[in-house]
Amino acid sequence: MEKKQDMLPKGVLHAMLGGKKFSLQRYEPGGDVGYFVQHYWVVRWDLRGQAPYSQTVLAHPNVNLVFEEGATGIFGVALSTSSHLLAGQGHVFGVKFKPGGFYPFWQKPVSQLYGTVTTLEEVFQVETAPLEAEMLAMPEDAQMVRRIEAFLGERLPERDPNVKRVSELVGLIQADRTVLKVEDASRLSGMSIRTMQRLFDRYVGVSPKSVIQRYRLHEAAQMIDQGAVSDWLDLSIALGYYDHSHFIRDFRAIVGVSPQEYRQTQTL
């Protein structure tokens, strides 16, 4: 079982503080499951004797299967940010599907899951409660990984070439800071805008424009968290924005506050 780097990933807002409250481990999928799954993740926390902690996440364009006591389900891409209250001691296990990787299991436009949660019964025709109890009773990450790999391995759909196509395009958008518009992604991929929009609706669950915004703002939040921003105009340019006001507008629309307000909460 190969473990990914365990630093908090982009999208975890105020990650420097969050890293003191909980741990995150990620594990690579094996075999044929890896065609559909990006990685497995485990969050653990022990806040006994401390105040509860609310962690906010700026969503990635991925569907997640999450095992959490009393809240297990399949989570579509969140609307913008989502907050998770950590209290006492506990852990959560998740399966992060590749962008497009959940569609072959679901066989419906993934946009139908946008901002919603669905059950294991609906997708996999298994009872949620017994599997949740079995998974969360396992003391070791490796045991949970093996169990879910077996679960998914028994239910693997046929490989859909669009999964690879969409996942690679989302990866290009994530890596290239100059991609700020759907036209930029279309130029990179050689795919027409209309084709891209249809594929993203069916396979990813959100529009190409939404994916582009999220990844650029992931980088912005990470740089602010790391104290690497001395000038907002420089940050805008570093992320490929030609219009400083456009960057501020995007940040506020998705994160909920301006970049300056976000930085100020670091010291609260």
UniProtKB/TrEMBL annotation:
Source organism of this protein record: Brevibacillus agri
Keyword flag Transcription regulation: yes
Gene Ontology molecular function, alphabetical: DNA-binding transcription factor activity; sequence-specific DNA binding
Keywords tagged on the record: DNA-binding, Transcription, Transcription regulation
Residues of the HTH araC/xylS-type domain: 164-265
Classification lineage: Bacteria, Bacillati, Bacillota, Bacilli, Bacillales
Keyword Hydrolase: no
This protein's name: AraC family transcriptional regulator
Domain of life: Bacteria
